[in-house]
Amino acid sequence: MSAFRTRSRATALAATTTAVLALALTACGGSDSGTGTRSEGPANNAAPASAAKSATGSGSAAKTSVAAKGTTAGGTTTGGSGNGGTGTGSSTGGAAKGATGSASAPLCTTEDVRITAATQDGPLYTHIVLTAKNTSGHRCEMKGFPEIQFLESHKQNIPSVAKSKPATRIVLDAGAPAYALVKLSNGGADEDVQPVTAFAVWLQGGSGQATVRAPGAEGIAVDPAAYRTGYWTYELRNGADDF
Asked: Within 10 Å of residue 114's Cβ, how many Cβ atoms?
């Protein structure tokens, strides 16, 4: 009987010990939950890793942004080319300005232009029109008025009419014409006129003499007391070229 009690007590003691151990293990398990918390650490670390990954993604985005900025910079460079183009435009502008500057073009010579004469209007043939066409292939300036000598007996050039002087220089492009109105006589029956079938023309400042055929089968009749010449112009103008 006492042996049975001893075994029962031992059994109870063992059970108690087991329960204590279980409680101890449970307590250790609580500590392990801290370890579990640490084990959760990698999971938490995973979040920063994701954040880092996101940051890397942001970095990529930043890189992409930089690339885009680079593209924009490239566009700016292209814009620079555009500005260069604008510069080219400026060159082109300079060229155009130079062309206007060609208003200071070389003076036309009688080798640069072909001068012809035609009657103006009216049956009395009191005026003729000289046409000087630029056949040189380059720009040149028709300066002043034509210097004309109609008669061998009158070696001086015929007088010019001041009111016909244009306000600007007359610069002819290749192939372009200039005109000058020339008065021959007053058309009166009592005038002392002389026949002319050809006459000499010089260009002011330009070298050479041009021999021009008078219009009409019988030529023209000129009065040394009345003849006059107008200035070279781009076109005949009412008022300025009426004399």
From this structure: 15
Of the candidates 24, 198, 184, 206, the residue with the CA atom closest to the CA atom of residue 113: 206
> Which amino acid is residue 212, in one-letter code?
V
Q: Nearest Cα to 130, choosing from 111, 112, 151, 145?
A: 145
Alpha carbon distances (Å) from 17 to 28, 185, 212? 16, 155, 147
Q: Is the dihedral of CA 186, 192, 197, 199 positive or negative?
A: negative
Strand segments (E) across the chain: 113-119, 127-134, 140-142, 147-149, 170-172, 177-183, 194-196, 198-202, 209-213, 220-222, 228-229
Question: Nearest CA to 124 among 180, 189, 179, 181?
Answer: 189
Query: How do residues 16-57 score in pLDDT, each as one tens digit?
Result: 444 433 434 344 444 443 333 333 443 343 333 333 333 333
**Residue 128: CA count within 13 A, CB half-sphere:** 25
User: 103-141, pLDDT tens digit by residue?
Assistant: 479 999 999 999 999 998 766 789 999 999 999 999 999
The pTM (predicted TM-score) of the whole model is 0.58
Residue 201 CB neighbours (<10 A)? 23
* Separation between Cα atoms, residue 37 and residue 42, nearest integer Å: 9
Structure tokens at 86: 């604008």
Q: Tell me how far apart the alpha carbons of residues 163 and 206 are, in angstroms, rounded to a whole number.
A: 23
Two tokens, residue 94:
């300079």
Average of per-residue pLDDT across 210-218: 94
Does the pLDDT at position 172 exceed 90? yes
Kindly tell me if the per-residue pLDDT of 205 is higher than 80: yes
